[in-house]
Amino acid sequence: MSVSPSSPPAAAAVPYAERLGLPWWYALAGLAIAALLAMEVWLGGAGVRAWLPFVVLLPVTAAALWWLGRIRVAVRDGELLVDDARLPVRFVADAVPLDAAGRREVLGVGADPLAFVVQRPWIGGAVQVVLADPADPTPFWVVSSRHPVELADAILRARDAG
Fold it and tell me: Which of 14, 63, 80, 105 lies 20 to 30 angstroms, CA to CA, from 43?
């Protein structure tokens, strides 16, 4: 009995997918700072003081940098997926792409404390997703995106297709 390999999912199945990763130079700077701190703790000490700071600080820093850049944003199967949060697109009233100034305005002094926010400061753009669910106290979502226009279009296309 032969089994044929399954074909990869079509690109249309995922209209939008993005990982909110760190720029490469953040990792370089973070590891350099961790190494400098480890050298400061070491300062020529012998025994455990010679290697323990490097064994602890460098992996912890690498893990923290990975954790900061782990968030994924996708629009698929009629849902907006942001990390482990899911929003069915049928509850979306509008999706507004924001530049850095627009994001600052939405998340600034007059920000709504009930809004769902996934914001990464190293990413300039964002999308404000206005909700149309009377049962949900959350008025809108604000999600960082490197391509806010494309993300907003994908959300609205998925909403209109459903």
Answer: 63
**Ordered DSSP codes for 40-109:** HHHTT--THHHHHHHHHHHHHHHHHHHHHT--EEEEETTEEEETTEEEEGGGEEEEEEE-HHHHHHHHST
What CA–CA distance (Å, rounded) separates 33 from 25? 12
CB 77 within 8 A of CB 89: no
Domain residue extents for the chain = 19-68, 73-161
**What is the β-pairing status of strands 140-144 and 116-118?**
parallel
Single-letter code of the amino acid located at 77: D
Q: pTM for the full model?
A: 0.78
DSSP state of 9: P
* Rounded CA separation 40/34 (Å): 10
Each residue of 70-119: pLDDT tens digit? 999 999 999 999 999 999 999 999 999 999 999 999 999 888 999 999 99
